[in-house]
């Protein structure tokens, strides 16, 4: 049986330039911070980070969590200057403000926590997307 924690997770898979633009535009308009996990299906460290990223997303209802396979949406990966995977990109107002390269859950959590505290919003993204 799946835990409640994972059911609340709001990680959205980006599979096209259009879906990227849609969600980034939405988050920017709603003033939501964005955390993106750039990965690849063949990259073991990326795969290992997926459950961690799901759990992290379940802890923040006012943040948009996205995941993207760098091979599926090369244009965005290139535009965001993703040169290694996994990479975690933190965006505010559609602009990158921090980048974490590598599969280091403690470092990712620490930097995401700091990022969220510095950009916190009173709204819940989960409620506005319903």
Structural features, described:
The protein has 130 residues and is an alpha/beta fold. The protein has a single domain (4-129), classed as Glutaredoxin. It has helices spanning 4-7, 17-30, 44-58, 74-79, 105-118, 125-129; strands at 11-14, 34-39, 64-69, 87-92, 95-101. A hairpin with a 2-residue loop joins strand 4 (87-92) and strand 5 (95-101). It is globular, with a radius of gyration of 14 Å. The protein starts with a helix and ends with a helix.
Short description:
Residues 1-117 form the Thioredoxin domain. This is Thioredoxin domain-containing protein. With 130 residues, the chain is of the alpha/beta class.
Which properties best describe this structure?
Thioredoxin-like_sf, 130 residues, alpha/beta, disordered C terminus, Glutaredoxin, disordered N terminus, Thioredoxin_domain, Thioredoxin domain-containing protein, Thioredoxin_H-type-like, 22% strand, globular, 6 helices, 5-stranded mixed sheet
Write the layout of secondary structure elements.
Layout: H1 4-7, E1 11-14, H2 17-30, E2 34-39, H3 44-58, E3 64-69, H4 74-79, E4 87-92, E5 95-101, H5 105-118, H6 125-129
Please provide the count of β strands: 5
The number of distinct structural domains comes to 1
Largest sheet descriptor:
5 strands, mixed
Strand order of the largest sheet: 1-3-2-4-5
Task: Indicate the CATH topology.
Answer: Glutaredoxin
- N- and C-termini, Cα separation: 25 Å
What does the overall shape look like?
globular
Output the radius of gyration: 14 Å
Low-confidence stretches: 1-8, 121-130
DSSP strand content: 15-25%
